[in-house]
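Archive record:
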Amino acid sequence: MPKTPEQDWATDAETRVLEAAIPLAVECGWNARLVERAGAAAGLSPADLELLLPKGPADLAALFSRRHDAKALAELGKIDVAQLKIRERIHAAVEARIEAAVADEAARKAVLAYFARPTHAPLALRLGWETADGLWRWAGDTATDENHYSKRAILGTVLATTLAARLAGGHEHARKHLAARIEQVMAFEKWKATGAPKPSDWGKAAAAFLGRIRYGARPADAPTQP
């Protein structure tokens, strides 16, 4: 269906505000001040900005995450997914999403610090779920039973920990980290049979990742700097 003029205005305004916010995030942090300055830079009145982003930095953070989802899916759309095995699809999906995230260097750390606050963890988990769902759908997942939920919970945590590995140790370290966990994603049924980690354990891992971002500690498996 074609968009209404109001939807076109909102989409264009969101894009302009986000583009203005990314370079300002280093100076401002991810907060109400950033939203205010980005809105002004995008030419929006305070009333229009309030209408567009009623939750301020939370709405802006959601736009930031969805920007990376869209970039990742655009890159993945260039791949003939039917020619890939399922593990290759997940590997490609995670790498595409990580590359999209690290490209916005100016704002990435500010957003991670914002998500690391306990009050913002529900938003971080919801957006992580949204990202994982989009990637699984691209990969061809059609599960409608409990595996629909467990796959997304697990992939969300794999994405978070792989991003942490990339930030701490670089591209090659992240590739090794991801490769070590692809088998875990593919073998979830075997985990359940052998008493391996349950989805709730992965949720705890996600919380631990956010805590490391908040307090500045590096992941335990990051390479030691010389």
Remarks:
- Residues 57-215 form one domain.
